[in-house]
Amino acid sequence: MKTRQLGDRTVSAIGLGGMPMSIEGRPDAARSIATIHAALDAGVTLIDTADAYHLHADDVGHNETLIATALRSWGGDTSAVVVATKGGHLRPGDGTWYVDGRPEYLKQAAEASLKRLGGDAIDLYHYHRPDPAVPYADSIGAIRDLLDAGTIRLAGISNANPAQIREAYDILGGRLASVQNQYSPAFRSSQPELDLCAELGIAFLSWSPLGGIKSAADLGTRFAPFQRVADAHGVSPQVVTLAWHLAASPWVIPIPGASRPESIRDSAGAAELTLSAEELATLDAA
Ligand SMILES: NC(=O)c1ccc[n+]([C@@H]2O[C@H](COP(=O)([O-])OP(=O)(O)OC[C@H]3O[C@@H](n4cnc5c(N)ncnc54)[C@H](OP(=O)(O)O)[C@@H]3O)[C@@H](O)[C@H]2O)c1
């Protein structure tokens, strides 16, 4: 598996997104564990999660617990694996989401995530989504405090605009390892953030890189050029899409979600697919 830089760590160029294993439509635990094991078997060393990936009010952290369990039962050396989690975006259990960016809340949420994930510190912690009721600097100040206290090893932000990336970068004294924003063939408006990450040397983790849980299967139908390039290479349109992400910048690391071992096994192959300049131009224009 080809690798990319994430802060002071080196991780697989393709990550695994944990959300489909814990929200609406989630599979049973055995299939989820098999999916995470399949990712590890394929050389995936970046797994994305969040405390909010759960269904009911009483199973906050469902996905973090699942990932910790799968890492323990895998049987191989997991020291190279980076588990990235997030805090500040919550689900009351009725399918809705809300934000809480208060510093005291974020610190308490990070401690709870650490307890679920185990170990001495969280590998990478993202502030999940800006809270309009709290100054951004205050929320990022909490992330800086968590870094300084050693509760988290690397800091990231998610759903951030360029001004917020620059602000976080400054508040963290340059220690901003990752920006996690939505980016896919259907959603390209994070291009300015992607470009800024390349300029500053920050990993850009594209979320919903295949268009999201409900749309990922239809990618080749909705974006015909991706299907055409896939046919030419004898791979799936999802693999072509992930290779297109990787070609966007050396700092991009897509984190495709999966709830089936087959999905992440297929996606992991994207790291080996090189697209020609002509193909990339066609996909960019699609
Ligand atoms: N920071 C944020 O605010 C935020 C928001 C949303 C998501 N995320 C993160 O980003 C991750 C990815 O986003 P996402 O899960 O919403 O959407 P996605 O990655 O665009 O799509 C996920 C779906 O793609 C399917 N899939 C994956 N690889 C495939 C392949 N090679 N061939 C066919 N289908 C394939 C999976 O199907 P199966 O389920 O059948 O395996 C899965 O349900 C999430 O899991 C989460 O970790 C972050």
From TrEMBL:
SUPFAM superfamilies attached to this UniProt entry? NAD(P)-linked oxidoreductase
Entry's Gene Ontology cellular component terms: cytoplasm
Q: Does the keyword Transport apply?
A: no
Q: What InterPro entries does the record point to?
A: Aldo-Keto_reductase (IPR050791), NAD(P)_OxRdtase_dom_sf (IPR036812), NADP_OxRdtase_dom (IPR023210)
Give one Pfam family, short name only: Aldo_ket_red
| GO MF | oxidoreductase activity
Q: Could you tell me which residue ranges the NADP-dependent oxidoreductase domain spans?
A: 14-285
- Tell me the keywords, alphabetical order: Oxidoreductase
The name under which this protein is listed is Aldo/keto reductase
